[in-house]
Write a structure and sequence with these properties.
By secondary structure, the protein is an alpha+beta fold. It has 8 helices and 13 strands. Helices cover 27% and strands 30% of the residues. A hairpin with a 2-residue loop joins strand 7 and strand 8.
C-alpha cells in the first residue's frame, strides 16, 4: 500500500441508511435505520422519526440521558443489536471542549456514530541519524487488530479525564513510562477520519503527542495489551507503512503525521499536500 492508500482506507464511509442522532437540538452522531427502529420501544426516552433519532425534551441533563441510553442499550445487547458493553464511559459533545451531553459506553460509539476521542503518543529517541520510534506489538488476544504494530502508547478518552491525564495514565499502563517523563509529552496536533464499520460509523479524533525519550529507556507493558516493543528508525517505520499493512489501521496515519512534522516526508513530494490535508478529514 502507498501512504495515501491508508488515509483513503480510513475515510471510506456512507451515510446511506443512517439517521442523524440528536441531543437538545444538536446533532452528535448517526444511527442506522435498524437501531432506530429498535429504539422506538422506549418511546418515553426517544423521539424517533424517518429524519432523526433524538432524546425527548424531558431528559434535560447528562444523568437522565445516560441512564436512558444505558437501559435501552442493555436490552439491545441481549438481542445482539449492540455489542456487549465494555464498562468504560466516554463523553459525547457537539465539538471537543463543549459541555458533555451524554455518557456512552465505549463499545457503542460506532453504533451511534458519535465522535471517539483518543490520545496517540509517538515515543521516540533522537539520534544523529534521525528519530527512532518505539513500536508496540499488539497482543494476539486483543479484540481489535491483534498482533498488529502500534504506537508505543495509545488509548481512548474516558469521561472526567483530561487529555494530559490520559497520556500519563496510558503511558504508565502500556509502556511503564514514569509520570514525570510522560508529563513531558508535547501536543502535536490531531488526526481525524470517518470510517464505515460492521458496527456503524467510526468518527475518530486522535490527539497526537510526541514524547522524547532518553536513549536508555526501554518500554515495558503493564496491562497485557502489548506483547512487546521494537525500536526502529522512523524512516524504517514509514517504509513499513508505505509498503505493508502491518500497522493497526489508524496508526498508519499517526506515523505519516510524525514523518511530515519531522521532515521525513519533504514538501516537494508530489502528494505532500494531499497527505497533509487527508490526515484531517474533518475537525
Amino acid at each position: 500500500m502507498a501512504l495515501f492508500d491508508h488515509i483513503l482506507a480510513c475515510n471510506t464511509h456512507s451515510l446511506e441508511g443512517r439517521r442523524p442522532f440528536q441531543i437538545a437540538g444538536v446533532q452528535v452522531g448517526w444511527v442506522s435505520d435498524d437501531i432506530a427502529e429498535r429504539m422506538t420501544r422506549w418511546h418515553e426516552y426517544f423521539d424517533i422519526s424517518n429524519e432523526s433519532v433524538a432524546f425527548r425534551d424531558n431528559l434535560k441533563d447528562v444523568e437522565a440521558r445516560s441512564k436512558a441510553l444505558a437501559e435501552a442499550g442493555a436490552a439491545m445487547v441481549v438481542h445482539q443489536a449492540l455489542p456487549r458493553n465494555r464498562k468504560e464511559l466516554c463523553p459525547v459533545m457537539e465539538k471537543f471542549g463543549d459541555p458533555n451531553l451524554l455518557r456512552i459506553d465505549r463499545a457503542w460509539l460506532e453504533s451511534f456514530g458519535v465522535t471517539s476521542y483518543g490520545v496517540h503518543v509517538n515515543g521516540y529517541v533522537e539520534t544523529p541519524d534521525g528519530p527512532e520510534l518505539w513500536v508496540g506489538i499488539r497482543a494476539k488476544n486483543r479484540e481489535g487488530s491483534p498482533g498488529k504494530l502500534d504506537n508505543m502508547v495509545a488509548g481512548g478518552l474516558p469521561v472526567s479525564v483530561s487529555l494530559a491525564e490520559n497520556v500519563i495514565k496510558e503511558a504508565a499502563e502500556e509502556a511503564s513510562v514514569p509520570e514525570k517523563l510522560a508529563a513531558t509529552a508535547k501536543p502535536a496536533g490531531v488526526v481525524t477520519y470517518i470510517l464505515s464499520t460492521d458496527r456503524g460509523l467510526r468518527r475518530d479524533m486522535l490527539f497526537v503527542y510526541d514524547l522524547k525519550l532518553p536513549d536508555d529507556f526501554v518500554p515495558e507493558n503493564a496491562d497485557g495489551e502489548v506483547s512487546g516493543f521494537v525500536r526502529w528508525p522512523a524512516r524504517q517505520a514509514l517504509r513499513v507503512v508505505d509498503e505493508t499493512d502491518e500497522f493497526k489501521f489508524n496508526v498508519n496515519l499517526v506515523i505519516i503525521d510524525f514523518a511530515i512534522r519531522h521532515g521525513l516526508i519533504a514538501p516537494d513530494r508530489p502528494d505532500y499536500a494531499q497527505l497533509v490535508q487527508g490526515l484531517r478529514a474533518w475537525s
